[in-house]
Amino acid sequence: MTTRKLNGKWYADFRFQHADGTVERIRKRSPIQSKAGAEEFERRLRTAMLAPTHTTKEVPTFASYADDFMNTYVLANNKPSERSMKASILKHHLLPTFGGLRLDAIKMHPIETFKANLLAKGLSRKRVNNILACLGKMLRYAHEIEILEVVPRVKLLKIPPQKFDFLTFEELPRLLDAMKDDPERTALLLLGSEAGLRQGEMIALEWGDLDLVTGTMTVQRSSWRGQIGTPKSGRERKVPLTTRLRAALRAHRHLKSELVFCHADGSPFTQSAIEAALRFACKRSGLRPIGSHVLRHTFCSHLAMRGAAPKAIQELAGHSTLSMTLRYMHLAPSALREAIGLLDHFGQPVGNAEAATG
User: Fold this and answer.
1) In whole angstroms, how far apart are CA 86 and each of 60, 110, 293?
2) Which long-range contacts (CB under 8 A, 24 or more apart) does 179-187 make?
3) Which pLDDT value is given to residue 354?
4) Any idea which fold 171-331 has?
5) Domain boundary assignment for the chain
6) What's the pLDDT at 333?
7) What was the pLDDT predicted at 16?
8) Can you give the pTM of this predicted structure?
9) In what helix (H) or strand (E) does residue 42 lie, and over which residues does it extend?
């Protein structure tokens, strides 16, 4: 037997060899603080470790776990659009590949093979990363609920910075001028280009969200296939209205529904109605066809090009992370010039450099 007194306390301290040959160091403080008590405590520990255990939890297959994942984690934590995306990824990619495997059989090599096969099918790197991110989340959640002891690493593909389309300072007035006799479409265009609303946020916007006296708007809900939820970031935001947008909303004011955009019978706009309105505006103005996301890119891009602070753009656009906002900051050359200008004052006292840069 091995007992030990450390810092005035008695411990059971020994090495135990398991049936599979592995050796484990055991050191536990004795509940009875005497040498005899520590020896008795050690005997009990050895006896307990020698006793057979039958508590090994069976690891489920990926297919059976996927049902549980969708009905618990996804249902409780994801928006309807995210649920639909995960269901599609499972159906078309993950279940056909991993469905029959036990979760603990999904290791790094099968995942890398899966990744290579997706690329060989011609899927974009962004699409492959979306699929891998879903798989990674499922495996990490399995670890959190103690189904998996070890989580394999899921390595995403490197993707170059995404390019996005937006309307220039010349194109936006051209688009608006073509719709000057149509208050509804003008309001829709400006809510995207001068307030940064997403398509679902436009569809769910109510007159009660607008204060046309103070010129502010509260974005607090979004619509996805008729289901109303919170905005993508999960929280509401306040957006000041430009003078032009406030005037457009006043001109568009109607009593058909509490919704800002609705059909003649008061029923809400759908995604196709928004897209049709944009196609009509683009055709009339002679511009390339755009979607509502281009209007939102225009909002963020114009703010960046006019020198707005990244944090302000993030708050106004409702980006969940600052990294999403920073995609637009390459459009702000003045900020880069000012940063390089600081080097012109090398060697001057800090106070003088600050005074020179204003």
Assistant:
1) 20, 20, 22
2) 179/281, 179/284, 179/285, 183/248, 183/251, 183/252, 184/252, 184/261, 184/277, 185/277, 185/280, 185/281, 186/248, 186/251, 186/252, 187/245, 187/248, 187/249, 187/251, 187/252, 187/260
3) 46
4) hpI Integrase; Chain A (1.10.443)
5) 3-50, 62-144, 171-331
6) 67
7) 86
8) 0.69
9) helix 35-50
The tokens of 3 are what? 């007992």
The two three-digit tokens of residue 232, written as one number: 């993508």
Q: What confidence score (pLDDT) does residue 351 get?
A: 53
pLDDT one-digit tens code per residue, 96-105: 999 999 999 9
The number of CA neighbours under 13 Å toward the Cβ of 136 is 13
Query: What parts of the chain have a pLDDT lower than 70?
Result: 1, 52-57, 333-342, 345-358
The pair of three-digit structure tokens given for residue 67, joined into one six-digit string: 């049902």
Query: In whole angstroms, what is the distance from residue 352 CA to residue 330 CA?
Result: 29
Q: What is the pLDDT of residues 308-337, one digit of tens each?
A: 999 999 999 999 899 889 888 877 766 666
Question: Is the Cβ–Cβ distance between 175 and 230 less than 8 Å?
Answer: no
Which residues neighbour 68 within 8 Å (Cβ) at sequence distance 6 or greater? 60
Report the share of the chain in percent with pLDDT over 90.
Answer: 65
Query: Is the backbone of residue 21 left (phi > 0), alpha (psi -120 to 50) or beta?
Result: left
CATH architecture type of domain 62-144: Orthogonal Bundle (1.10)
- Which two tokens mark 16? 């135990």
